[in-house]
């Protein structure tokens, strides 16, 4: 059980899990106050640039931040910070060449901001075994920082979804183009079904879910949960509670027009209407030449061009994120 990262479950659980495989609920151990993962399904939409610049914004506000390059097959977060490949990378941790994850944190030259550089050219590290991935997540969750920000790879691979799902904030980056919107929905739906599967495993609902799903097709989770409730009201109520915690955050990147800026709200409304679930819209980042120019100059946008519109937009995204945490903390301390 030692290698199981904390699974996000509603606490306290309303009923004892029926399966012997009990979840590890919040334990009183040192932990990263918040784990944020930045994903979105599609490649090249700005996940790494959003991760890096959001990290800088939070670090400047006095938060202790570590950026983690979790793009296991295509690590390049160091480049967005203008750094060479650090000597120590995630590969050393995954391959147990170092004792703790703190041993692979590299300073970035920015106060309060460390980097765990991605695994480079190690096939094993690019495709970690399940146990290796769980160990990595557990160690990230236990780091002594305020925010651990994970830059995820593209696609809907189980590795990517699992990082997204164990985070306190699973952030979906969306570019306002039809193909990107399609990919974003695909990503968030895949994450949702994986969460459903995890919950079913933990609480022993697999048989129940299978038989309900074999009996018909469901247009939305709401429909599915209400059918489960008819069969087993307690399971239905628990499932509904657990699924309500699946609440992705949304950032629109590369907004060029006023309509682009509005697309975030439209996506949130559509998600609610067709999926019966909530998302939190954190705001939008402008399409800004300063973004790619500073990248080419190997300098972070917020360092080199803090006045650029895209750079200033990160303040709004950080405000929204911090506000969610304040609300969550008020609830935790009640
Ligand atoms: N707000 C923006 N304004 C202008 N260009 C942008 C913006 N965001 C991203 N880009 C461009 O998109 C490119 C890809 O960005 P980035 O590497 O962060 O994407 P990614 O989603 O991490 O890609 P990958 O899936 O390959 O890891 C950048 O090189 C930059 O040119
Ligand atoms: Mg990237």
| Helix count, DSSP H or I runs of 4 or more residues | 14
CATH H level, superfamily name: P-loop containing nucleotide triphosphate hydrolases
Q: Classify the secondary structure makeup into a structural class.
A: alpha/beta
Cα distance, first to last residue? 29 Å
Largest sheet: 8 strands, mixed
Set out the fold topology.
Layout: E1 34-39, H1 47-60, E2 65-70, H2 77-80, H3 90-94, E3 105-107, E4 113-116, H4 123-126, H5 130-141, E5 147-152, H6 158-166, E6 169-174, H7 178-203, H8 206-214, H9 221-231, H10 233-244, E7 249-255, H11 258-275, E8 280-286, H12 289-296, H13 301-304, H14 309-332
Parallel strand pairs: 1-5, 1-6, 2-4, 2-5, 6-7, 7-8
Antiparallel strand pairs: 3-4
The protein binds adenosine-5'-triphosphate and magnesium ion.
The site of magnesium ion has 5 residues, from helix 1.
Describe what you observe in this structure.
The protein has helices spanning 47-60, 77-80, 90-94, 123-126, 130-141, 158-166, 178-203, 206-214, 221-231, 233-244, 258-275, 289-296, 301-304, 309-332; strands spanning 34-39, 65-70, 105-107, 113-116, 147-152, 169-174, 249-255, 280-286. It is an alpha/beta fold and 334 residues long. It has one domain (34-332): Rossmann fold (3-Layer(aba) Sandwich). An 8-stranded mixed sheet has the order 3-4-2-5-1-6-7-8, sandwiched between helices. Helix 11 links the parallel strand 7 and strand 8 (280-286). Helix 6 packs across helix 7 (178-203) and helix 8 (206-214) crosses helix 9. Mean pLDDT is 86; it is low at 10-29. It binds adenosine-5'-triphosphate and magnesium ion. Residues 47-48, 71, 76, 151 line the site of magnesium ion.
């Amino acid at each position: 059980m030692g290698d199981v990262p904390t699974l996000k479950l509603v606490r306290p659980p309303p009923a004892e899990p029926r399966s012997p495989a009990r979840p590890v609920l919040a334990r009183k151990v040192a932990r990263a106050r918040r784990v944020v993962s930045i994903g979105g399904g599609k490649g090249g939409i700005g996940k790494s640039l959003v991760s890096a610049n959001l990290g800088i914004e939070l670090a400047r506000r006095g938060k202790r931040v570590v950026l983690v390059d979790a793009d296991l097959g295509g690590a390049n977060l160091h480049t967005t910070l203008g750094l060479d490949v650090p000597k120590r990378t995630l590969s050393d941790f995954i391959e147990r060449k170092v004792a703790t994850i703190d041993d692979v944190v590299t300073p970035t030259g920015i106060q309060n901001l460390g980097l765990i550089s991605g695994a480079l050219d190690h096939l094993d590290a690019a495709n970690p075994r399940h146990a290796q991935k769980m160990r990595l997540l557990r160690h990230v969750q236990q780091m002594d920082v305020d925010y651990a920000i994970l830059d995820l790879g593209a696609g809907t691979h189980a590795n990517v979804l699992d990082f997204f799902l164990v985070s306190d904030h699973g952030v979906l980056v969306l570019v306002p183009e039809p193909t990107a919107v399609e990919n974003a929905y695909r990503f968030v739906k895949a994450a949702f079904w994986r969460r459903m599967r995890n919950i079913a495993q933990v609480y022993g609902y697999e048989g129940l879910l299978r038989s309900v799903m074999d009996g018909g097709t469901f247009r939305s989770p709401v429909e599915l949960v209400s059918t489960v409730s008819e069969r087993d009201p307690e399971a239905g109520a628990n499932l509904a509670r657990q699924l309500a915690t699946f609440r992705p955050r949304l950032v629109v990147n590369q907004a060029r027009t006023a309509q682009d800026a509005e697309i975030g709200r439209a996506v949130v409304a559509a998600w609610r209407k067709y999926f019966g679930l909530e998302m939190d819209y954190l705001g939008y980042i402008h399409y800004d030449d300063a973004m790619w120019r500073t990248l080419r100059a190997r300098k972070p946008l917020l360092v080199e061009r803090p006045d650029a519109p895209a750079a200033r937009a990160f303040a709004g995204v950080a405000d929204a994120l911090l506000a969610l945490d304040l609300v969550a903390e008020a609830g935790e301390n009640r």
